[in-house]
């Protein structure tokens, strides 16, 4: 039964997974505990290890093993594993190692100058590093290959099988549907100003987020939580999943909703089948599907009234002074209030995708060379006015707000919108399968939902593509129907207002493959 | 001027230093923050990266570059760099990668079963893992090559140019000199029982150690301190030096003296010349010289009366309840009290080296196959009685107490004794060069001593061997004269007793090369 090519391939895959995990530790550490003077040393370490990873991935023998193994009689999992591995290798094989190392260094420089530019509130400090990153990403896209749309090659890295041509109309439909919703809801939901200076003890917030993780069922023996300025989920292995959170001493929202968000990512990572560990299958098939898990817990569960019916007394007990006079319904309204804001990570569920529409359209233009880096702040501000309806006061509130471009990630942003769409479809399926889901949530019990997600999404890893997985669970692929229906139902109830219909009838789900 | 072989060698050396730094992060993390279930995943990551490190070190092209580069006209630093690098490669080149990976795995298993054995207080649980580690180390020693004494090949890894034949008489002399000193001093120094249950708030201890690091001049922007069960100094680069400390809520000694000890290591690591970074020269030439730095700060400075004259009021202010009734002189006597104890890390300066004598003689016998693993606990206990003068109550107090063998390190222990000897010689030279040293220490100022150590030891890295470096600074090589003189002077004063002379006249320094 044992095929030597397949065995060799598996051994290399284990090695690469180990190296990938180590890269995960290096970046986690960079964002949490690295001493300030060690930036250049860490950049060199990352470049070295990324270079070695690349070498071991594209080595000619790996191509031979793949071809030989693919000719064998394979079970479905092995075939899926080879498919995922081949995709990664095919993407890398045309890219010279020198470009890999140059990118790693440009990413470190990008992060550093971005931080500098933010502290000086001056985009021009960051512009040269961004120009360099774009140059290298264009070069990389051309090396990977594409059919005339460079953005496709980068997008495919985060969302395999998605294309710019398919994505942009999805986002345009979201824009058309959401702009009137924001117009109707902005300012319509009253409530107290909760986070206007009342102190929320940071240590108490920290303990609360850890209790929240335990309540939700994150395995803290197979993961941990630390603090970082920009929260993320990382780690080295499904038994070592690392969440970070940010604590604002005047506002518990970043910590609480950040923890809920990263918990969704982390639960997914912990849930890959042990038999897939150290292979290409122990991964999400796309960032969109990954984001669906974070958004499901952050928003669909984490901003729901039943969930807070259970959690709010506990939050109030943790912060009795700040919350004594605030009732559950007021609190629930405040954490869902629709309000135009220039900042993506502070956006409500209705506005959020508009921030993604904006970023994606700009990314595509940058990659097409339709937009020069020097013109970027003005393009951002104009587009922000058109889409969200306000102008940022400066570049820190504008084009400098996100870490992604500083780290050279282009093609990542749209996966947030795809995640929102997938999250609503998956939740609808879960509600159908679990009739007492919301009663349980109202008692603080999320075990059934967790088990359902594990059974239908997490344990499968990368066996199917994101859309195939969603199709297998819900009976249909990518659609905005479920997400828009969710928003309309939730916000009609919250605002007590009739809401405008989408400008055009929603494409039926079956037609949006 | 540029020699292509030398350039290629430098690039490979940079790569290897980066990988070595990354290995440092993996082990630091393993001892500080790794989730409990991630042990096997981390073991695999370590084995993979150690295997790759080995491959890149022993690759045939590296041998060619070395030979070609060595034929060039080289400045002294480059020649020293090549020498150090060749030593590392020559050690590795005979060792097959399979053995490297097997060792990495056996080390992880060793640590795990050692922890298990300690919690069950049963040596036999650990015996199979130790047997396996010894087997592999014997195999490794034979692969490296030696002149009939396997221990030499392992010792050379930690203390280049030291041999068993030279080491054992040094240790025997120490035994003869120290046993009568312990006999004379054990129980002779009275004082209050300070650490008999009074609480010392852990958070307060933590803050105190951080203030201590700042006072001493550890650069916390180029390093950090964390907690771990077994304190150590690690990190990834001279700009990223990581100390750990252990906090006992009933006794501030482990935290305070542990911090002083690791500070000595850490200051050394931070002090390598920037032009040597990412080369073989950014390293200590031996663990003995490294330990000289930790022991110098922990003991020669850190247990001195002038130092505590400055620090004690601050410690007392941090723990007013526990220390209100304790005067400086009593405190100073207690932290220097000579008392037979079965535990090395709790030993006073007089007894300490006897623990090393014991371990080294056992290691040599194990490597010579003169002692079976099954007979080890009894051999330990018998030797403990003969050398230190007491029998451990069980194996946790005995043979299971140290982490070194669990991690497969044989040949490390004697470097502690060498470090003690070197520390006294170096301190004597510093006192000669800095007449106001102790006045400054008494004011909490250690800048001159730090600068002197930097100038004469730290910045040189591995340019010279340990003994050559000590020779360059003090005018002589390894000797016990300075150390024994230091002990006798200190303990005559502390105990108010005349102390027995060494059994034989001390070999004059010049004769102990």
Describe this structure in words.
Two copies of one chain form a homodimer. The first copy, chain A, has 513 residues and is mostly helical. Chain A has one domain (146-513): Neurolysin, domain 3 (Orthogonal Bundle). In chain A, 61% of the residues lie in helices and 3% in strands. Chain A is built from 21 helices and three strands. Chain A has a three-stranded mixed sheet. The longest helix of chain A is centred in the first third of the chain and has 29 residues, at 4-32. Mean pLDDT of chain A is 94; it is low at 505-513.
Topology of this structure?
The structure is a homodimer of 513-residue chains.
Chain A: H1 4-32, H2 39-58, H3 60-70, H4 76-93, H5 97-120, H6 127-144, H7 150-158, H8 164-185, H9 202-216, E1 223-227, E2 233-237, E3 240-245, H10 253-270, H11 287-301, H12 305-318, H13 320-323, H14 328-334, H15 349-367, H16 376-387, H17 414-433, H18 437-442, H19 447-456, H20 466-474, H21 481-495
Parallel strand pairs in A: 1-3
Antiparallel strand pairs in A: 2-3
């Amino acid at each position: 039964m044992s095929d030597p090519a397949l065995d060799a391939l598996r051994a290399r895959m284990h090695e690469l997974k180990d190296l990938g995990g180590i890269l995960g530790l290096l970046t986690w550490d960079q964002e949490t505990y690295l001493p300030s003077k060690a930036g250049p040393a860490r950049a060199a370490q990352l470049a070295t290890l990324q270079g070695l990873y690349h070498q071991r991935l594209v080595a000619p023998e790996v191509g031979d093993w793949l071809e030989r193994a693919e000719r064998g009689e394979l079970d479905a999992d092995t075939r899926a594993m080879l498919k995922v591995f081949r995709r990664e290798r095919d993407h890398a094989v045309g890219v010279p190692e020198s470009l890999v190392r140059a990118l790693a260094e440009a990413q470190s420089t990008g992060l550093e100058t971005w931080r500098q530019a933010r502290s000086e509130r001056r985009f021009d400090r960051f512009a040269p590093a961004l120009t360099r990153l774009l140059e290298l990403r264009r070069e990389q896209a051309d090396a990977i290959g594409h059919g005339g749309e460079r953005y496709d090659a980068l997008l495919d890295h985060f969302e395999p099988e998605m294309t710019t041509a398919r994505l942009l109309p999805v986002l345009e439909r979201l824009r058309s549907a959401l702009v009137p919703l924001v117009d109707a809801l902005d300012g319509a939901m009253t409530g107290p100003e909760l986070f206007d200076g009342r102190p929320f003890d940071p240590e108490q917030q920290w303990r609360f987020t850890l209790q929240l993780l335990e309540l939700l069922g994150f395995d803290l023996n197979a993961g941990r939580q630390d603090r970082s300025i920009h929260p993320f989920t990382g780690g080295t292995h499904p038994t070592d999943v690392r969440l970070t959170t940010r604590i604002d001493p005047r506002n518990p929202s970043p910590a609480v909703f950040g923890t809920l968000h990263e918990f969704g990512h982390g639960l997914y990572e912990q849930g890959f089948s042990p038999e897939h560990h150290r292979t290409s299958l122990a991964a999400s098939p796309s960032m969109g599907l990954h984001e669906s898990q974070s958004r499901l817990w952050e928003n669909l569960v984490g901003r729901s009234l039943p969930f807070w019916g259970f959690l709010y007394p506990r939050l109030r007990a943790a912060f009795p002074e700040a919350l004594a006079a605030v009732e559950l319904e007021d609190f629930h309204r405040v954490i869902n209030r629709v309000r135009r804001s220039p900042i993506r990570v502070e956006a409500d569920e209705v506005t959020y995708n508009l921030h993604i529409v904006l970023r994606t359209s700009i990314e595509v233009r940058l990659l097409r060379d339709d937009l020069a880096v020097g013109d970027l702040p003005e393009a951002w501000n104009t587009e922000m006015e058109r889409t969200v309806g306000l102008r940022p006061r400066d570049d820190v509130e504008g084009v400098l707000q996100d870490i992604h471009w500083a780290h050279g990630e282009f093609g990542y942003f749209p996966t947030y919108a795809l995640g929102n769409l997938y999250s609503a479809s998956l939740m609808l399926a879960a509600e159908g399968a679990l009739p007492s889901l919301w009663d349980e949530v109202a008692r603080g019990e999320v075990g059934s939902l967790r088990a359902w997600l594990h059974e239908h999404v997490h344990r499968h890893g990368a066996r199917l593509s994101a859309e195939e997985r969603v199709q297998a669970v819900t009976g249909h692929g990518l659609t905005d129907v479920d997400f828009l229906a969710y928003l309309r139902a939730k916000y009609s109830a919250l605002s007590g207002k009739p809401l405008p219909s989408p400008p055009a009838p929603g494409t039926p789900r079956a037609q949006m493959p």
